[in-house]
């Protein structure tokens, strides 16, 4: 089974529509929040609310069983304030080291939360940074931002067969 994951489109409707046209036969479509345009353009998508979404009807989280994986979907901003406060006092770290520590702590919090929800996989967005990492027994997958990302705009194609999961990270030029 193959799935298209996107996040943080921030109003980039044309780019989003062009991408969807490239993948008409996926088994599922997921948007991890911060849409920025009418939801009617994403009718085939499962969508969670991001911190910039004004669509209050969108859920904060969704859960699915895909193959033998228990998947939690969320935007990923749940632990922002807590994580930033923990890292801000570490002024002895360089900017790059501070960002790495911030991401490590965020992954730890997301992993713990995902396990508490009875899931083994998390699809999330928010950071605009692509990742597919195994962290404390939880697979964390962030497709990046379709509008702009740290290393270019991005999305992910996720393939799940039974318990096996593989995410192919795709990049596009930033706008």
UniProtKB/TrEMBL annotation:
Keyword field: Metal-binding
Q: Which EC numbers does the record give?
A: 3.1.4.-
> Origin, by domain of life?
Bacteria
- Quote the InterPro entries the UniProt record gives: Calcineurin-like_PHP_lpxH, Metallo-depent_PP-like, Phosphodiesterase_MJ0936/Vps29
What this protein needs as a cofactor is: a divalent metal cation
**What Gene Ontology molecular-function terms does this entry list?**
hydrolase activity; metal ion binding
Query: Does the record's keyword annotation contain Metal-binding?
Result: yes
Query: Is Repeat set as a keyword in this record?
Result: no
Residue span(s) of domain Calcineurin-like phosphoesterase:
1-162
Q: Which family does it belong to?
A: Belongs to the metallophosphoesterase superfamily. YfcE family.
Protein name stated in the entry: Phosphoesterase
